[in-house]
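User: Here's a structure from my thesis project, written as structure tokens. My advisor, Dr. K., wants to see whether a designed sequence matches the one we expressed. Can you design one independently, without my sequence as a hint?
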């Protein structure tokens, strides 16, 4: 688990099979969940885990796997099945892999969900209620609309959200999209859409290849250790039809093993974001469809 936006889980679940399947009673045409923001960027949603709730989890589109705090895992009597190595730019640690009987966010529910057990005490310094993190092995089963202005998560049951909005359909693979950064030249980037990041992060090749003015070193600490990062600004970042100017950026020279993208793009840069996992695209700041 990452505590800071630059650190991201890269977990190998070995032979553990993802047995998740949508369950539960018939839902309304659309499920709306109100969320709270921490530091104007991080999304906290109410969930039900193994029929216990409401609990409060961080919604993190950049986390591969859902995480439960070790105290909650003990309370729910989760049984570790195996261990996995978690690697970030700050170091590595070993965590337990368990299976959660069920997890529900609004009308969206999965059973037999693989989860990682981790001490989230550092994360609870941001919000003491946090008991876990909702990751992609849950979110990728659903289409949804994040609305930062209304602070709502709307979960699509059929195509009712898509039928009501207009916008460019931007292809995504595992929440990774194409972007373009302009400094003294242009640089093509592959960025992961990350609701668990509170700022733009570039790592590895992108961090070392692009020229950044006004770079300043900072020390960041996560659960796996401390690392020195560089902060700077990007003159212009283009994502589909959306353009950002003089955007703060954090640079990490070393990317965790297994990462294929160039960095993390916080979803909080957009007022609304529609994610269609069934068809593999996103819409940035979609508008109501004219009737």
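Assistant: Designed independently from the structure alone:
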């Amino acid at each position: 688990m990452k505590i800071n936006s630059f650190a991201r889980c890269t977990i190998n679940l070995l032979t553990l099979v993802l047995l998740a399947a949508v369950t539960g009673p018939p839902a309304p045409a659309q499920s709306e969940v109100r969320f709270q923001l921490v530091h104007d960027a991080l999304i906290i949603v109410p969930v039900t885990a193994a029929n216990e709730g409401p609990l409060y989890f961080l919604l993190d589109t950049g986390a591969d796997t859902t995480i439960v705090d070790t105290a909650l895992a003990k309370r729910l009597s989760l049984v570790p099945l195996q261990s996995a190595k978690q690697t970030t730019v700050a170091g590595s640690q070993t965590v337990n892999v368990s299976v959660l009987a069920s997890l529900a966010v609004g009308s969206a529910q999965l059973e037999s969900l693989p989860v990682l057990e981790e001490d989230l005490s550092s994360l609870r310094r941001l919000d003491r209620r946090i008991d876990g993190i909702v990751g992609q092995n849950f979110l990728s089963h659903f289409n949804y609309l994040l609305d930062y202005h209304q602070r709502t998560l709307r979960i699509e049951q059929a195509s009712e959200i898509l039928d009501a909005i207009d916008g460019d359909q931007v292809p995504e693979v595992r929440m990774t999209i194409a972007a373009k950064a302009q400094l003294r030249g242009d640089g093509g980037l592959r960025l992961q859409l990350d609701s668990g990041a509170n700022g733009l992060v570039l790592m590895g090749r992108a961090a070392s290849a692009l020229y950044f003015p006004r770079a300043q070193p900072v020390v960041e600490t996560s659960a796996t250790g401390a690392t020195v990062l560089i902060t700077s600004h990007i003159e212009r970042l283009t994502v589909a039809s959306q353009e950002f100017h003089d955007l703060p950026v954090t640079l990490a020279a070393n990317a965790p093993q297994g990462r294929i993208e160039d960095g993390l793009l916080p979803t909080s840069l957009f007022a609304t974001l529609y994610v269609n996992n069934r068809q593999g695209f996103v819409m940035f700041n979609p508008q109501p469809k004219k009737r």
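When you compare it with your expressed construct, this may help: The radius of gyration is 19 Å.
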